[in-house]
Amino acid sequence: MTTLQNVESSQWQAQATEMKQKGLVRCEWLTATHNGGDAFEISLMLSTEDLSENLILVTDIEASIESLVSVYPNVSFHEREVAQMFGVEFIGSDDTSPAFEIELSGFPLRRDFALATRADTEWPGAVEPDENAKRRPSLPPGVLPEWNS
């Protein structure tokens, strides 16, 4: 059984600590959703040792939140991944190295990140049966008009 629980960001670490004391000893994953600007939703899935119970803690933040490494040491990789892909800061984290050994210019999982390949690709091209006729120009999915300027 999986339960969803919303938590105030100020209670994030305290709630995770309480859940661990109640038997949710496994940290399965931590991820983020970018809601625009500096607004994010952080989600954390916890489980009992036998996986019979699952809990997803969810909180809304503005760019930073307390690290849970002191509660669940294995969350370190997930926090580093979210930091590298979204730009979220985990306060008190002991390891701030990138999760992936790739060079990134920006945070690719943010909604405002320009997808260069899509923005540079000519869409949609010629149509059949007249190969010389062109369709009305349109932008590919996920490309904002201001990226083409």
Automatic annotation (TrEMBL):
GO MF, one annotated term: NADH dehydrogenase (ubiquinone) activity
InterPro entries: NADH_quin_OxRdtase_su_C/D-like, NADH_UbQ_OxRdtase_30kDa_su
A Pfam family: Complex1_30kDa
Annotated NADH:ubiquinone oxidoreductase 30kDa subunit domain residues: 7-117
Region (Disordered) location: 121-149
Protein name: Unannotated protein
Organism of this sequence: freshwater metagenome
